[in-house]
Write a structure and sequence with these properties.
Blueprint: E1 7-10, E2 16-20, E3 23-28, E4 31-37, E5 43-47, E6 51-52, H1 54-62, E7 66-70, E8 76-80, H2 88-99, H3 101-130, H4 136-156, H5 162-178, H6 202-224, H7 243-250, H8 253-266, E9 275-277, E10 283-285, H9 287-301, E11 304-307, E12 312-315, H10 319-332
């Protein structure tokens, strides 16, 4: 499992990847710029126009190393992977559970409750660490919202159906992002709400990229444990949508992506110069800024935390794998319920 922490990100335009014995080699304009031992890699993520030789694709498929292609700004384009060896009995159980709304509701409740609790934890950390430097109005707004999120987490556990649960989750997310701007402690940036396709401000540009990376990690976690990443419990089925991966990532948006986004801005690791503002209204990271975000993402995934259910300390980047394992155990009937991840 540990090798899944290692991701090779290729962001240079015109880069060319090929295989040299048991190594993945990156060349730009014919000159070697880096290499990585294949046995240390779990996936390769390519941004923009990056070429990959057929021999490397075949090698990666054989070695269970996925290759993901993203657009210049992080839009998912394609994924190359070898044959999946998911347990057919497990996938049948997953299909039965997701096809029945009453049974899918049990897992979906846990996911929404955990997401709301984790969003609340992020707000409470901000009040604890910086509340004494905030003006009264934003401090009160954050406090009211964190209390509402506590109510949402509680109400989610008794939600009567999926539509009601999705409504709760949507209202909670709107309230959370309404006060998100108060968590940014630099006057250089503002956040007026979540937007995407394209993102229209620097904060949304960073959030969008981090959510793409998180979704890919959750998809890999689901597949590793034999689950179908497209059969979700909370997210509706839609052609091309990896609904289960989106389900899993809800638990990690606040502790992994949102927390890191705030850190990058509040520590001034990103400035106005790191973004390109287009006439159409879209805002995108520069190549250097994207490299900064990717390095910070890898560092965040290495952060050691204790997982309450397993009662052991592991890198945060492994937690999606642990949650996918718990979901598989629930579907097999090994445990009575799905214990969603609560950030502590």
């Amino acid at each position: 499992m540990k090798k899944l922490l290692n991701t090779l990100y290729v962001t240079s335009e015109g880069a060319w990847l090929h295989k040299d014995r048991q190594n993945v080699v990156v060349k730009i304009d014919g000159a070697e710029r880096g290499r990585a031992p294949a046995h240390l890699l779990g996936q390769i993520v390519c941004f923009g126009e990056v070429g990959v030789t057929p021999s490397l694709m075949l090698f990666c498929a054989t070695e269970n190393i996925s290759i993901t292609f993203l657009g210049h700004y992080g839009k998912f384009l394609a994924r190359v992977e070898g044959p999946q060896s998911g347990n057919i009995l497990l996938r049948r159980a997953q299909h039965r559970e997701t096809a029945s709304e009453s049974r899918a509701l049990q897992v979906a409740r846990a996911i929404v409750a955990a997401k709301s609790a984790n969003q609340r934890a992020l707000l409470r950390r901000s009040l604890r660490d910086h509340g004494n430097t905030m003006a009264e109005t934003p401090r009160n707004a954050i406090d009211v919202t964190q209390r509402r999120l506590a109510d949402t987490a509680r109400f989610a556990l008794t939600s009567p159906d999926l539509d009601h649960l999705r409504g709760l989750e949507g209202d909670a997310a709107n309230g959370y992002f309404t006060v998100f701007n108060h968590l940014i402690r630099t006057s250089e940036f503002t956040f007026e709400g979540r937007n995407r396709r394209p993102p229209r401000d620097p904060v949304n540009a960073v959030l969008s990229l981090l959510y793409v990376l998180l979704a890919q990690d959750c998809r890999a976690a689901a597949e590793t444990h034999g689950l179908d990443p497209q059969m979700g419990f909370l997210h509706r089925d839609r052609p091309g949508r990896m609904s289960l991966a989106l389900d899993l990532m809800e638990e990690f948006r606040a502790p992994m992506a949102d927390r890191l986004c705030l850190t990058l801005f509040n520590r001034r690791q990103l400035g106005k110069r790191d973004f390109r503002f287009e006439e159409t209204g879209g805002v995108f990271l520069t190549d250097d800024a994207r490299a900064t975000v990717l390095k910070a993402w890898q560092d965040r995934k290495r952060t050691p935390l204790r997982h309450a259910y397993f009662d052991e300390t592991a890198p945060l980047g492994m937690f999606a794998q642990m949650q996918a394992q718990l979901l598989a155990r629930y579907l097999r009937g090994d445990i009575d319920g799905y214990p969603a991840y609560i950030w502590r």
